[in-house]
Amino acid sequence: MEMRDMNMRALRFLIVLAFGLFAALPAEAQPNGDMTLADSRIAYDASRYIELLEDRDGSLTIDRMADPDVATRFVRNDGRVPSYGYSNSVYWVRLSLRNESEQREWLLNVHQPPMDKIDLYVAREGGGWTHKRSGDAYPFAEREVRDSDYSFYLDLAQEERKTVYLRFETEGAMILPITIETPVVHAESGRTTDLLMGGFFGIMAVMIVYNTILAFSLRSRAYFAYVFINVTAALLYSSLNGIAYQYLWPESVWWNNRSIVFFMCLAHIAALFFTRQFLKLNRQFPTIDRLFQAFILVELINMAVLFASYNAGLRMAACTLVVIDLTIVLVGVASWHRGYLPARFFLTGWGVFMIGTVLTLLADAGIIPQWGHVRYASQIGSLFEAVVLSLGLASRIQSMRIEKERAEALMKETKRQAESDYLTGLYSRRYIVGTFESLQKRPENVPMSMLLLDVDHFKRINDTYGHDTGDTVLRDIANLLRSELRSIGIVGRFGGEEFVALLPGQGLAEAERTAERLLETVRNYPFRIRDARYPCTASAGVAEWRQRERESFESCMRRADGALYEAKRAGRDRVRIARDALDEAMG
């Protein structure tokens, strides 16, 4: 219970933290006009000053920007980060800069790592254009500034005015977050970004390593699936943020262009595997489990399509994204509704991740503005999900341990009931037979005897006083036998009024003395029937196990039963011993 309370407190804290990280307000629009660079500021959001032109067929060139029919088509941006979703158009940006500061060197930055092609044009004195290019369609080494975003140096003398043109072309989301910064500020913001990314990937690495150790130690498929989902998430976000292109495959342009969609499909496969294991879909929802297997096959096909056609793979991934993620959430809700407690962690973690993913997708599609942390909403959600699912796995292990303990307790109770007589609580015939067979394996020269005891005139008690009274007498005798033989024998009920005792370590003479003592105890016990004392006696037959012959239980019991019959025939309330083989042969 303490661990469960701690998990719930941690869960509530993470929920508050996640929504706090997602909270961001849109920036206020600034007056339109040229962007003026002053000494009082060292960083600017250019989105408030840019003008935009959509080139639907991509036919425009920089030489046509001065044509009146083209120049008048530029539209002033509304102050928000331009976002046009997944568009086939090429977009041009016009930005007028006036430098009134003493700072001559500035950096124009485009904070959109998945952008394919960016062309920057600055007019030269005397005519012509200074042209620079960047984007993930070119080798990383060609970048003017070696970081995951795209940066271009601008040389502006004091009081100089320049117009900058940017051409954007991409098969991904057309998002144009443009800023102007000094190199020092850019380096500092880069260190901050690196620190945050380092924190994200550091936490993910710790979660991966720790849970990999748990997966091997516990041999848990759910933990292996959890590690798989975190590894794919780390690879996906390293591709999205341009980190993988910078450090892992800087020369692999073709692969880098497909890596995001590839890891998106792989992350879905990991999520489907994890959901199947964590929510035990094969038990709870067999039909949904088969549907998830079909989803996995679809994602594998999508990965194959991606290598043949990037556009087809991207669109297929976009279609399956909503369907698969929504199905996973609905299955989590259904599992929680069925009372599977670990599902609350699953639903919380996956739900927050879905919120972050939806915000990121809506922003990429241009449906909502690119506000504050929206760019990292999916990544924040993924980190939150990793932590919560880790708590969920711990809760699941705890739940499985409780289930195991309950199953073991039930098994023990079932075994106890199978090995016990329901009326007296003594061992059953089945248990006595099994114990006899195990005692046969003991070393030689260790004697063992069997004692059969039968209550005298028991039918008379049932007929005269009723079966309830007879049951009371049987329970009293059972308690006497249990008390007398606790340290020297194993006693059970064979049915009716007949009891059996195994006496390991006792030969025939010692077993006979034990039987005499038992009959005396029964004879002297104050049985009560209807508030009056009722005299009750018993008869006993004793047989010693023939060790050298490896005598069976049935054979030994027949001899003890024969001795019991002799005791009954001789007048009851006495002990008789089974004759050995020599006596039987003589007559």
TrEMBL record:
Transmembrane stretches, start-end: 195-216, 223-248, 260-279, 291-308, 314-333, 345-368
Keyword list, A-Z: Membrane, Signal, Transmembrane, Transmembrane helix
Signal peptide: 1-29
SUPFAM superfamilies, sorted: Nucleotide cyclase (SSF55073)
One Pfam short name: 7TMR-DISMED2
PANTHER family documented for this protein: DIGUANYLATE CYCLASE DGCM-RELATED, REGULATORY COMPONENTS OF SENSORY TRANSDUCTION SYSTEM
Cited NCBIfam families: GGDEF
Protein name: GGDEF domain-containing protein
